[in-house]
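Weekly puzzle thread! Below is a chain. First person to post its structure in token form gets bragging rights.
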Amino acid sequence: MAHRPVLVAEVVDTFAGRSVVIDATVGAGGHAEALLQAGARVVVGIDRDPDALEEARGRLAPFGERFRPVLARFSRLADAAVGAGHPAVDGVLYDLGVSSMQLDRPDRGFSYRYPGPLDMRMGPTEADRPSAGDVVNGYPEEELARVIFEYGEERLSRRIAAAIVRARSRAQIRTTEELAAIVAGAVPRRRSGGHPARRTFQAIRIEVNGELEEVRASLPQATGLLEPGGRLAVIAYHSLEDRIVKRFVLGESRLRALTKKPVRPSKAEAAENPRSRSAKLRAAERVAAAGLDAQGRAEVAA
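Winning reply:
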């Protein structure tokens, strides 16, 4: 399936009139392209996946120096922005989760729909992180159940973990196809019709990539980079990410929420792009808080 960015019109509207925007999860460059077409002077595109960054670089080549790609995790957002020559910006966008390009490449091991190696690392060169195979074959049963329950919100996590441990006692689990079959055999088919392994795969992917820790580490950096009037927008795809964003915005005195409730895709977009159905967009604006000067630095009495 071709890359189709989610909530594009809403993202463009959120950053209308903003000059320098960081796309902290640039992926294939769909949102960045729309922002540049809408008048952003510069978009700094950050991604931890060199394959995605290369695709974005090719797609956005017509914009020349207006697009500035950076290979980095967004937990290193401040360093990436400074390295790109923009220690202050007026927009930061996150489109969290896994991209269509990653899901549709079996060799990356993200999808339960295609046979592939159990990898799931968003940065294929990130040897410092465990692969999905390391998690599935190496975690103790209790820890595996915890991961599946907390990150997949899977109520049958203990049953699934036990089935995985039984299977790996016979032979190492090496492929997505094997893991999906083990999970499917451990739980009843759900009435919703969704694949029974969906939540388990989500949980393992989040664990492998430290996704929630990345979000928690990055949001304060994004706020610190924003000039007063600058905007933060986050597209999340499950309740764990969305809850982190909501609580952060509500608890951050330097931000004013622009969305009381998350913005959801229209019925037309959800029908045309099924992967957009779970998307939730939250946005906030940087304010000059009491005790801070126009640049957001603490005022010091003479």
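Puzzle host: Confirmed. Bonus trivia for everyone else. DSSP finds 13 helices and seven strands in the chain.
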